[in-house]
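ok here's the first one, seq then struct tokens
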Amino acid sequence: MAIDTSDILLNGRVAVVTGGGEGIGRGVAEGLAAFGASVAIWESNVETCTSTAEAIGALGIVTDVRDSGQVDAALARTATELGTPSILVNNAGGVFNSPLLDTTENGWDALYKSNLRHVLLCTQRVARRLVDAGQPGSVINVTSIEGARAAPGYAAYAAAKAGVINYTKTAALELAPHNIRVNALAPDLTMTEGLLRMSPNGLSPSASHMIPMGRPGHVDEMAGAAVFLASDMSSYITGQTIHVDGGTQAASGWYHNPQTGGYQLGPD
């Protein structure tokens, strides 16, 4: 069967993007809508949920995806107003510095709930509806480069993101017989509102030297990968984590020397 340009289109499909009020989530929501999907944004921040939904013509539902009751309510409303979602982007997450020796049980649980627990809740609920309806689907989990490498000071966050990667593989196998694909996207440094709030004076020059392509990513580049995984162009891809990271994962410690421009492994 020859590839057709229409295979990338998402017309007639319903997509849910969690944490879609800003940052990568908003970029992905905009991308899915641009390719024809009807989009529902599940976002806990009332202001960004409303403003983003209005800007891109999406259905905005204020939802804390860490809460199963709120997830069930958001799914019911989405199905009533738009139809059964066949695309789910589990993008919601959060991070804060938490050195291993100082991490509290509450801190660990908070990072687990923000980055991993909701991935199960949302995937399970949407997949159940798809299985009952006999419909195919695509689940896209947003993890992080930190899920595939050590992250000193962020052990709990990195563990949760690593959990997302393994969960993606296992869920892909369990849902494959139902024609529901499950994949993940792993960004490195990406320019978002949250990153700019953390670095109001801009990124240090050394940050770009750590990325082979020499710059941080853009949310639209994450959106492009998400559209691909949501569409029929990726119909035989499941259980994979795609690193949309400018080459960071491949580099594995090699980086550009800021003086020579050449690659070197570790500091001088």
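and now the second one, same deal
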Amino acid sequence: MKTLLKMTGVAKRFPGVQALDGVDFEVMEGEVHALLGENGAGKSTLLKILSGAQTADSGEIEFAGAPVRFASPHAAQGAGIATIYQEFTLAPDMSIAENVFIGREPGSRLFVSWGKLAAETRAISERIGLKRLPLTTVRELSVAEQQLVEIARALSMRSRLIVMDEPTSALSEAEVANLFEIVKRLRAEGISVIFVTHRLDEIFRICDRYTVLRDGRYVGAGAVAEANVDRIIRLMVGRDVDLLYGARPAPTPGPIALEARGLTRRRDPRDPRATELIDVSLTLRQGEIVGLAGLVGAGRTETVRAIFGADTLESGEILIDGKPVRIESPEAAMRLGIGLVPEDRKKQALFLQLAIRANLSIAAHDQISALKWFVDERKENALVESFKRKLNIRMTGPDQQVSKLSGGNQQKVVLARWLALKPKILIVDEPTRGIDVGAKIEVHNILVEMAKSGVAVLVVSSELPEVLALCDRIVTMRVGRVTGEIARADATQEILMSMMALDEAPAAGAA
């Protein structure tokens, strides 16, 4: 197999941080290569240098047998390297065809040949299984379809190397399977793929070789067929990890902290793809972690948003400590001792341009205020320092911009915000999405410690191993309805998948 990309001794330093320290990285022609490492390991910096978004301080890059140094992403694209980022770079109000050939539309200097544009887009779409008309507006597409548009754009540039950054983070299992079939097709055509993921099982499903970075350094590489999860985790975190998801002993459940009865919310006609809720009921006890599991579109996020007062219910009842309550807004939920860590921390939880101190203390003004109107900086600093130690938040200081933190440390800041309020009930929606294995374990430990202190914790997760290891009971949903409830001791991935996929839950093992 011939080498397509070779990066040797690549180094990059930012003020106060050595992001890359002499990294070697090699990708062969026609292979899928996993680039692995914890958040902050240097993966993003290495790929930005490869794509021309940043320049290396030192090191050499060879592509297709020739030395290269890209001054811009446009130069890298021209050489045959395309990058598909986790957050898409599509223009939502333009058509598929316009997005695929943006800036390179066929036609004369003055006029676009719309017929040729549609025909060329249709040919690429058929190649990757995108079953949409070329002039369909991107805004009308699902996340999985938008990702295919990004792949179509890369193919339209005749790319020889495609970088996929966390391509499966927002996809259902069926959509992931479809993406993997497309990746296999690309590999068969001789196109190389750099595959960045935190889901370790995916490496063994789709990748040929892997490279691991840790703290900005190359620590190992090899054939996936000769590796196992334990070896890769050991390389990533620098220590042995007995379990990816550390199991916990079953607690003695306390009194019921929260009960939802018959929650119903009809579909918003302005958003026909949204999931409606139909007669959803569940209970949550003090000191217990309950999982809410289901496939994409099951209604898990809609359920927790309704409980938190972010969405209006048509009918149903919520009881806190056995007493009926009205929760018409998130503020009302917070007054009742409920906290919600939302699914998308960047869009729904963090103020990315503000400092860590502001993000962490924004909901705890009563604790850090002076004369009720002014922030006491000494108290605020003490609060930030306290949670920095408790949660092992890796940061340069309280004034660091929160967007500069890794995904795992951003998630810890959101959790710290709620810990500061001492909630009775904490709801966490996809608590470990997009964070590395070491940070996952730390987040799990935080949730376990909260449950031990008597907090009732409700966890929404798409990762069944996480649900099985972390939760004491699991409630399953499908298309807006609860399909069953099962104790962790009685559950397996197969049973849960059956409960999530069928209208009627299996009777055996139900709690």
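notes on #2: Residues 504-511 have pLDDT under 50 and may be disordered. The chain is about 35% helix and 25% strand.
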